UniProtKB/TrEMBL annotation:
Required for a late step of 50S ribosomal subunit assembly. Has GTPase activity. Pfam families: MMR_HSR1. PANTHER family: MITOCHONDRIAL RIBOSOME-ASSOCIATED GTPASE 1. Residues 114-168 form the G domain. One of its GO terms (biological process) is translation. It comes from Desulfotignum phosphitoxidans DSM 13687. NCBIfam families: GTPase_YlqF. CDD domains: YlqF. Belongs to the TRAFAC class YlqF/YawG GTPase family. MTG1 subfamily. This is Ribosome biogenesis GTPase A. The keyword Cytoplasm applies. GTP binds at residues 58-61, 122-127, 166. GO terms for cellular component: cytoplasm.
């Protein structure tokens, strides 16, 4: 299975990024801390060229802190960029990320430091900018692809910050990556069957976060053995029913996905460094044994 989702403005953005990146002093790549691999910009290696590159693992308020620490260690060991984890809605953390990115980059009155903020849709690029400035100057929202055009903002200390539209690759594969993007809301819910997304989330939660499931849904006694059983119990308990008492799986899926994305189930990471295909140590995951 492959997923195709490539709005027209993204092709224009890709061309602009290639042209503008050469002028940037630093490229800040905004990632979703829950899915650091799936949320990587697909063309970043080519786009970054000779610019300093910093990975910003955003949304740590929604991610498993143990796994986030594993990712920071992983990028330090294997990555080609520095990495820092933040919540972009926190002013002190946003400022710390910016200072971390520009550390060692010189400037003077005649030359500003040019910082590009890039990433796939819905990773928090515009939120990061708004937090730094202290007011809403960039559109934000939970719908992918809110930012459609480059936006430049001048900050103190001779810094120009460029907010860019989110860019995805034309075809999303393998399926695991597509589901990781979909369950966190990085791509439109129309790109995949909503019940399939919920099935993916249910499998992840049952295998890695059963205690969080139990805390959010106390009626799970015992916790189901499979995805179908989980959706059935959620549907029955939350009144997601059709005629004659049949479970409405679409409504049950909506409950689970909304709770997952909002953080009501808890701090959940979809990917760990041990899930990466190129990690020889992936079979020795100490967190999820």
């Amino acid at each position: 299975m492959t997923i195709q989702w490539f709005p027209g403005h993204m092709l224009e953005t890709k061309k602009w990024l290639h042209q503008s990146a050469a002028k940037a002093d630093v490229i800040m790549e905004m990632l979703d801390a829950r899915i650091p691999v799936a949320s990587e910009n697909p063309w970043m290696d080519k786009i970054s060229r000779n610019a300093r590159r910093v990975k910003i693992l955003n949304k740590i308020d929604l991610a498993d802190p143990r796994v986030t620490e594993q990712w920071l260690t992983y990028f330090l060991k294997h990555g080609n960029a520095r990495a820092i984890a933040i919540n972009a809605t926190d002013k002190s953390q946003a400022v710390r990320a910016l200072e971390y990115a520009i550390e060692g980059v010189s400037c003077n009155r005649a030359r500003k430091r040019k910082i590009m903020v890039v990433g796939i849709p819905n990773t928090g690029k515009s939120t990061f900018l708004n937090t730094l400035v202290g007011k809403k100057i960039a559109k934000t929202g939970n719908t992918p692809a809110i930012t459609r055009h480059q936006q430049r903002t001048s900050l103190p200390n001779n810094i120009d910050l460029y907010d860019t539209p989110g860019v995805l690759w034309p075809v999303i594969e393998p399926p695991q990556r597509a589901y990781a993007l979909a369950v966190t809301g990085a791509i439109s819910d129309a790109a995949l069957d909503f019940q399939d997304i919920a099935w993916f989330a249910a499998g992840l939660l049952l295998s890695r976060y059963p205690e969080q499931l139990k805390a959010r849904y106390p009626f799970l006694d015992p916790i189901p053995d499979d995805e179908a059983g989980l959706l059935e119990q959620i549907g029955a308990a939350r009144g997601c029913l059709k005629a004659k008492g049949q479970i409405d799986y679409h409504k049950a899926a909506t409950v689970l996905i909304q709770d997952f994305r909002s953080g009501k189930i808890g701090k959940i990471s979809v990917e760990t460094p041990f899930d990466t295909s190129d990690d020889k140590e992936k079979n020795s995951d100490p967190t999820f044994e």
